[in-house]
Each structure stands twice: as C-alpha cells, then as structure tokens.
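Researcher: Re-running this chain for the archive, since the previous output was lost when a drive failed. Same request as before.
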Amino acid sequence: MPKYKELELEDVEVIDVELHKLIVYNDDVNTFEHVIDTLIDVCDHTSEQAEQCTLIIHYKGKCSVKEGEYDKLVSMRNAICHRGISAEVE
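Model: Regenerated structure tokens:
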C-alpha cells in the first residue's frame, strides 16, 4: 500500500496587475538597424525578437514590443523616443 504525506496549504495573496503594451510605430526616417539596436538595448530583446518586431512595424505600421507594468514601460518608451522612434504605452 503506497504511503502518502499530508501537506498543509498556505493562504496566498493574489495581486492583480494590469498589464500595458509598449507600441512602436513605423516611420520613414529610422533604419531597420537603428530600430533593431534600440529594441535590443532598451527592451532587452534578442536580435531575433528585435528583427521580427521591426519587420512587423515596417509592414503593419506598428507592433507591441513589450508588455508589463505601466511605470516600467513608460521609462522604456521615453528611451525609445529619445532615440527618435515613435512609441506609446497603451
């Protein structure tokens, strides 16, 4: 007959955090390389992620490049905008 161990369950507090999206927009000014480098530097994307997002931005006009808490995304948006790329947090 198998032996079982009794486990005690603890109460866990669940906190709902509203996630926002960081959207980057296409323009006719910035190069693919500049946008890719920015996504790698600012959003910690891998080169593959940055390239894919940049292609989506180019062909669709915009791309959600990051999801997270509002305050963190705002600082990323500011860094992206300081590099001359249009972005906003939704």
